[in-house]
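Running this now, will post back.
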Amino acid sequence: MSDERAAKRVAKFIKPLRVKPGSTVDLTEDFDPRYRAGVKKRDGVELLRTGVSLLADHQARLAAQDTYGVLLCLQAIDAGGKDGTIRHVMSGVNPQGVRVSSFKVPSAEELDHDYLWRYAQRLPSRGEIGIFNRSHYEEVLVVRVHPENLDRQKLPEDAKGPDVWQRRYREINDWERYLTDNGIKVVKVFLNLSKEEQRLRFLKRIDRPEKNWKFSAADVRERAHWDDYQEAFSEMLSATSTPWAPWYVVPADRKWFARICAAAVLAHTLIGIDPQYPSLDGQARKELLDARRGLEAEAP
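Update: finished.
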């Protein structure tokens, strides 16, 4: 398949997932966690293989060009499938060109800095794909649902007023615009899981010994805040899907389809960059030919 044909196919596939900048999102009404675009599971393996192949090709060019970096932000409710998405989508790329960062409870050092500081430390370099497994959006999600976390951030009183979330949306949009303007492309994927599917996945984690390590009682406590999170997700998507860093809402109830979508979104970003292998100037080409002649002369 040609690059142009692949680009058109991928763009068409992910268009329904994109949050139009400036739109108002009601997550429960606007996006179906079980949507699968008419794709059958038996066809999913080949589609994912195609996506991974596109990623591998473009990642190699991205690293060789050494001009752009790509930051993939993955957000989801607990059991949304972030780890599995990373494992499957990045299965065919060179691990030297990918860095995955997970963000847990902030440390004392991190709390002594502004809320974006710890995320800035993990940004991808040029030629690299960086993946945030949870991201700076935790600062308008978990921190919003649990405002005691805002108190731990040692903010001045006038920085904790009722406009704090709108201010953070603006600051995050400005930060992502800055990154994009400097060659770090930002792409954001929200894995949209239904409450019933989360319940079933929690039960699997409890019932299957090999999955017990994934389960935490805190997950069930967080589930009690489901409606608060849905409201926070909806407002976040509405306020921070921008032309330079759009959100894609990926239906996550079917893991196989979520992985295809995430691969397509990332491939679309890389295709848009269109990285190229560097071309050699005249002197470099001469040195290459000289080296070839020398090696050929050594042949027995």
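The chain has a mean pLDDT of 93. More later if anyone needs it.
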